[in-house]
Amino acid sequence: MTRHNRKFQLFANIILLLMVTGIVLPFLLLFMSSITEENTLIQNGYAFWPDKFSLAAYSYIWNQRGQIFRAYGITILVTVTGTFINILLSSLLAYGLSLKELPGKTALTFYVFFTMLFNGGLVPTYLMYTGTFHIKNTLFALIVPNFLMSAMNVLLIRTFYQTSIPDALYEAAKIDGAGHMKIYSAIVIPLGKPIMVTMGLFSALSYWNDWTNGLYYLSGDKGYALYSIQNLLNEMISKIEFLSSNSVAGSISSDLSQLPSTSVRMAIAFVAMLPMLVIYPFLQKYFQKGIALGAVKG
């Protein structure tokens, strides 16, 4: 390695270190705030090393563990099911669009791209899902709207297929008598694993972090029983804010007024994102390869 290359490598490492630090510090500050004593947090603000520690926020969440575990189960079910269907539909459509001999390929590709720019609007969409498909207060309300198939996923997966899977493999499979479903299952899926995992991670994050579908399509006791973790934690935050505001007005007892509202918000945010932080390192190698091959080459 030449002297110039060593200087560039050092410079690049410093830049990456600063970027990583900028990414990690907010998560660290969030966690430290969640274990900070409430009055200390209010008086001194957020700190990486607070004067007083407290697990009151996590104690409050633990007292609600029955609801939280149920919401986690619903979120995991919705995330796994929705992500699987999303990747299956997106990859099947992407495979068709990647074929050179597909009739009307340009028009179909434009139709998929068009859905990235325009949609029917919130009110017509709500009326269609509730009045025509009757998904209100069902698990389908958390799976079907918005994320069931992504146009961006389709186009990125299509680009990966076109640039990373040689046409000779398709031709050899056809000579051996393989149909499109056999080619898809025996060639496309194994070779397309990096981009599928990458797009699957994007889809899973969308499902895991989604709370708008629950807000729109879940209501009443039946809907509350189907709350995802994001909807439940948002509900908990709303209740804490209500109790805190009423304690100021003297409407509730002094015991409830001692709820660690600020630190609970931090703890709730940390609890909601923890599973994704745990899973991501195991998918990182696929994520990097999928982005590089699926986007840069296109």
From TrEMBL:
Q: Which GO terms describe its cellular component?
A: plasma membrane
Q: Which GO terms describe its biological process?
A: transmembrane transport
Q: Where is the ABC transmembrane type-1 domain?
A: 72-283
Q: How does it sit in the membrane?
A: Multi-pass membrane protein
Q: Does the keyword Cell membrane apply?
A: yes
Q: Where in the cell is it found?
A: Cell membrane
- Which protein, by its recorded name, is this? L-arabinose transport system permease protein AraQ
Q: Which organism is it from?
A: Eisenbergiella tayi
